[in-house]
Q: What sequence folds into this?
């Protein structure tokens, strides 16, 4: 079966929003897609990896003429790609060379909250270096790192503080998937930006409480990119790293592709499709087979009607590898008996956004769940079905499974582990959530302006035998 639709509710597409900013086809000459270098460890043993991640100011050449002032992780804009290995003890120096405080949030990583997780309670002040240690304990996946200070996550991500974090493991190693980084295993961070006078960003000028957008699409920070295809099969690790934008991806000739991974790792089975829609913070890994093209051909990845990246076909060796029908097993634990369903509403739009009717408060713990319990959460988007928005619901520190949409089946590409799920206006989505570690974790809408605007709450994962108290920051102590 080949799926040929986007699944999400069409009336809720961001294109219907009054403030929607359409992407324009770039007039800049095509440029090679930037492939971020891999962050090299400071030191590595069989059991331990040591890294330094530096948040820094820089300037980046996006457009002809003036460079743009940007921020990045060990890079000018975005960052170097970080690779972790499941089972390894990992030690990271988090260095802040910016003029303001930031935090380093490991989106999709199963690490203790709230400090290692790097949400708003873990500031690193300018000129300082914090240190974290954790054991990587989850399957191979495409995750990411981004800034998360309250309430300026959106401005810091807009300046460039986001980068891909790839987790590897022995299971994924055995699958017939491309994994030669930069050659046939390609990160693609999708974002949009507005360029103002002298090619500068101006977040304030572009501000919209429903999410900031720009006219120019960037892939890994490249305007109008092309990629030279030198292998028959190419794996794309796509991240919606934009503040607000949804991406409705398809090839200009409706080339079929296979989705093999979602936020939390490899899917149980490949899903064959010609279209895929991504909401903010979601990751999709797809495998594209270019076997029917000739050297010199070009096929273009589009979002709606805008070209995003041109794939220029070069000579390659024939590759008859096919994907198995079964890829990995997804844990399916029964919900813990007698637990009430946790009900969450995602309310409002613009400045009115809230979770369960409340704005975020850094010092308030909104909910508690026993570590190891498997709980059903029911998330309802209370926006009107006529003019509401899709709210991408994200939980820190866990990978959940999506159980149902309005009591019915989930989308065909939602059978793997997820940490972010798009909830349509008027829709109720049930997910199954388990925390394996204790800590205070945030959950929120991942339209970053909604998150900064208060559509966010926090839950304590607790161990009754080892009660903990947390030093929660407030805006004033920051
Ligand atoms: Cu991408 Cu609170 O996270
Ligand atoms: Cu997160
Ligand atoms: Cu939202």
A:
């Amino acid at each position: 079966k080949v799926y040929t639709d986007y699944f999400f509710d069409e009336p809720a597409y961001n294109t219907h929003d009054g403030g929607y900013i359409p992407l324009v086809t770039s007039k800049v000459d095509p440029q090679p897609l930037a492939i971020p270098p891999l962050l090299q460890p400071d030191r590595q043993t069989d059991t331990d990896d040591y890294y330094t991640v530096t948040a820094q100011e820089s300037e980046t050449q996006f457009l002809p003429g003036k460079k743009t002032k940007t921020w990045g992780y060990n890079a000018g804009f975005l960052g170097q790609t970080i690779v972790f290995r499941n089972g390894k003890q990992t030690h990271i120096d988090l260095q802040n060379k910016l003029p303001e405080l930031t935090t380093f949030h490991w989106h999709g990583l199963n690490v203790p909250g709230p400090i290692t997780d790097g949400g708003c309670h873990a500031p690193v002040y300018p000129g300082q270096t914090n240190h974290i240690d954790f054991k990587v304990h989850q399957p191979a996946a495409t995750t990411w790192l981004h800034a998360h200070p309250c309430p300026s996550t959106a401005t810091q991500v807009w300046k460039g503080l986001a980068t891909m974090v790839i987790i590897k493991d022995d299971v994924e190693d055995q699958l017939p998937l491309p994994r030669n980084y930069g050659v046939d295993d390609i990160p693609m961070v999708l974002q949009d930006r507005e360029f103002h006078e002298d090619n500068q960003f101006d977040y304030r000028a572009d501000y919209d409480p429903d999410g900031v957008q720009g006219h120019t699409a960037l892939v890994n920070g490249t305007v109008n990119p092309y990629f030279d295809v030198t292998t028959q099969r190419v794996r794309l690790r796509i991240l919606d790293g934009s503040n607000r934008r949804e991406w409705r991806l398809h090839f200009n000739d409706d080339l079929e592709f296979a989705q093999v991974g979602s936020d939390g790792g490899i899917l149980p089975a490949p899903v064959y499709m010609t279209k895929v829609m991504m909401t903010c913070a979601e990751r999709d890994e797809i495998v594209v087979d270019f076997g029917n093209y000739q050297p010199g051909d070009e096929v273009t990845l589009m979002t709606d009607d805008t070209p995003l990246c041109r794939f220029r076909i070069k000579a390659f060796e024939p590759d008859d590898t096919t994907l198995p029908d079964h890829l990995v097993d997804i844990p399916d634990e029964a919900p813990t008996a007698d637990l009430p369903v946790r009900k969450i509403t995602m309310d409002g739009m613009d400045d009115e956004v809230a979770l369960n009717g409340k704005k975020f408060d850094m010092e308030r713990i909104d909910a508690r769940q026993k570590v190891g319990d498997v709980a059903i959460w029911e998330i309802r988007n209370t926006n009107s079905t006529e003019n509401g928005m899709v709210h991408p619901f994200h939980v820190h520190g866990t990978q959940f499974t999506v159980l149902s949409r309005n009591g019915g089946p989930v989308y065909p590409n939602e059978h793997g582990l997820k940490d972010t799920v798009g909830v349509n206006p008027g829709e109720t989505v049930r997910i199954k959530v388990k925390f394996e570690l204790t800590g205070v974790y945030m959950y929120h809408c991942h339209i970053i302006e909604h998150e900064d605007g208060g559509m966010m709450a926090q839950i304590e994962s607790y161990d009754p035998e080892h009660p903990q108290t947390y030093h929660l920051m407030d805006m004033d102590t920051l």
In short: The first helix runs from residue 153 to 159. The chain has three domains: 2-13+176-313, 22-171, 342-462. DSSP finds three helices and 34 strands in the chain. Helices lie at 153-159, 170-173, 448-452.
